[in-house]
Amino acid sequence: MGKKLALAVALTAACGAAHAGTIADLGLSLEQTRSLNAQMTTPIAAPGIAFGSPTAFGAGWGQAFAGVGGQTVTNGPDDVDGSALLGFGMGDPRRFVGIEAAMNIISLKESFGDDGNWNFKMHRTLPFRAAVAIGVEDSSGWGAAKDRDSSSYVVYTQAVDLTPATPKRPFTFTYNVGVGNHRFADPDKGGVGGFGSVSFAWHRQDAIIVDWNGRELGAALSFVPLYRIPVVLTLGFINLTEHFADREFAGGIGYLYQF
What we know:
Layout: H1 2-18, H2 30-40, E1 63-72, E2 80-91, E3 98-105, E4 116-126, E5 130-142, E6 151-161, E7 172-181, E8 192-203, E9 206-212, E10 217-223, E11 231-238, E12 248-258
Antiparallel strand pairs: 1-2, 1-12, 2-3, 3-4, 4-5, 5-6, 6-7, 7-8, 8-9, 9-10, 10-11, 11-12
């Protein structure tokens, strides 16, 4: 099947150079035509699958990423707060294991870079669009984040293609489940808490997310606004249950660089 599709791509290019041919001229089956069309029109990035919870998929060697996020603040001296993230991957998660390292800069308004910490994740990609990972957040802090407790977790993520599906509307359901301490647990009880998220992509560039981070519920929409540029925009609300904090609007934008 892979050789046939590669040949079809080559033939399509040749036909385009010679005359105004179409994919139908190649004599492919309907399934082969759909697969070819999907490969030729796949966006360079995918919408998000979580909104506050960690996921099991991660960066490997040749991948780096950056992001900026912010949220409204209803119980603090400022109306808006923001943070930035810079990270990179090592290893091969498909064949062996991948290691992802990310630096958090937790304040963008004053004294940029004076406060921050690190996240680390070891992850493995499994067959059938699944992955498993263990990680730690908020470690090795400096500045105001130096005394913050780090949070450890283990997580499993699975993507499922639903039917009916078309090249532009894959109808993909993704769920994400895990357990962790500190950030993912009830602060009144301590110990270990569960977290998870579900997302539904009705288009390869759009998805809706519902996320439970172990303490509060969040919901968001995630978009890939530009077809051939790996930028992901996610906007939504956090603390919907208002157990430990007021409901707030939050969002972020991320960029993936591959080399």
